[in-house]
Specification:
Blueprint: H1 8-26, H2 33-40, H3 44-51, H4 54-79, H5 83-93, H6 97-108, H7 116-134, H8 138-156, H9 169-179
Helix pairs in contact: 1-2, 1-4, 1-6, 2-3, 4-5, 4-6, 4-7, 5-8, 6-8
InterPro entries: Homeodomain-like_sf (IPR009057), HTH_TetR (IPR001647)
GO molecular function: DNA binding
Keywords: DNA-binding, Transcription, Transcription regulation
Length: about 180
């Protein structure tokens, strides 16, 4: 049986999926390009040939995660341009644990002068997208993103999501009646 060769775009997508898995598990510092290569079934030099550096691979992975959120928000707003609709879309994204975890790793690596601007731009794009799609004011958008960050942290701790741990009283209080 003949193997079909992946296009450069398909191979890059394969590497970014592997990077999402690897970086979500080990963070920026705890992940190697060799781990990404093994997950993708390619050689480590190939990863470097495509992305140049581990840092560039991480940045592209964080950008991809931000793009995924923005795309999902745009689809939700096409049906109903409200904060509630975007919130429901984000609830769905919380099930994609690797996505939210890699964003958290990006936030924690933001002290690095090469990583910080990219992560801040990603977050700023999401903020601007929320305002653009819903017409929310600054305070409304701030509250929406604050709740989203809370849910992101709780999702990473497995308080929310498809594999959530049994809820303790503090979790129920923190989530409130709508999410508990």
């Amino acid at each position: 049986m003949a193997r079909t060769r992946l296009t450069a775009e398909e191979r890059q997508e394969q590497l970014l999926r592997a990077a999402l898995t690897a970086f979500s598990a080990g963070g920026y510092s705890g992940t190697t390009t060799d781990q990404v290569a093994r997950l993708a079934g390619v050689s480590q030099p190939y990863v470097i040939r495509i992305f140049g550096t581990k840092q560039q691979l991480f940045l592209d992975t964080v950008r991809r995660a931000g793009d995924r959120i923005e795309q999902r928000f745009r689809r939700a707003a096409a049906e109903e341009p409200t904060l509630a609709s975007l919130g429901a879309a984000y609830d769905d994204l919380l099930a994609e644990r690797e996505l939210i975890t890699v964003l958290l790793h990006g936030f924690t690596a933001s002290a690095d002068p090469s990583i910080g601007p990219v992560v801040r731009d990603c977050f700023g794009r999401i903020y601007r997208t929320v305002r653009e799609l819903t017409g929310a004011g600054e305070d409304e958008a701030r509250g929406f993103l604050a709740e989203g960050m809370l849910l992101t942290c709780l999702g990473a701790m497995r308080v929310v999501g498809p594999d959530a741990v049994p809820r303790e009283p503090w979790m129920i209080e923190l989530l409130g009646p709508d999410k508990a």
